[in-house]
Amino acid sequence: MSTPPGEYYTEERWQNWIDRIEEEDIDPEDEDSARLLLNLQDDTAIAVAKIITDYDDSELEEETALDELADIRETVLSEIDIDDEEKLMLIDGVQTSLVCVFYAAEEYIVGGVAEEGTVSEYIEAASEAEAEEDLDAALGYCAQAGTRIIDGEELDRDAAEDLEFGLVAEWVNGLDSLQTALSDPEVVEEDDE
Q: Pfam families given for it (predicted)?
């Protein structure tokens, strides 16, 4: 076992990011601020990618992998205690993007790769479901797209950029982080200035 249980991601690691965001002047239009938020998201996606990789390499049993994912999800999606409303909103955006990363990873581990369509087709279906206000279906389609990405299919960034602003666009943003994490699972340095 290369990674002891509970070491894929810790509450302390997440809290370090939150503290850093709380301390800094965050302006989403500013490149450094945007990078900090993206690093927060990518750091979590990397932890998820490592669990998937260890599961694929038979270093983790299905139940252990799911437990690890659940632990990280609980940490990352918990309510944040920051007084700054704008920062809360920005972190909430990151959390929203990561929801689909967790669902995709769980679906992949439990059910394998979605066989019916391509990443683009699933995202298109998700977008249509969102337009019809069927958010459960939209999330399901995005998660299925995620299983294809985990299996090595590329997310078409142009198609992702054409999405209307909304939950599907946020979820696809998370899948983009997951794709990056799977191809380059380098740890994002928390104190990278």
A: DUF2150
**CB–CB of 164/29 below 8 Å?**
no
Give dist(CA 43, CA 36) in Å, integer.
Answer: 10
Inside any domain, residue 40: yes
Cβ-in-10-Å burial (0-12, 13-18, 19+) of 59 comes to middle
How far is residue 30 from each of residues 25, 26, 27, 36, measured CA to CA in Å? 10, 8, 5, 10
pTM, rounded to two decimals: 0.90
With respect to residue 6, please indicate whether it lies within any of the assigned structural domains: no
Q: pLDDT under 70 in the chain at which residues?
A: 1-6, 185-193
Determine the Cα angle at 86 with ends 160 and 40, to 5°: 55
> The dihedral of CA 30, 33, 36, 38: what is its sign?
negative
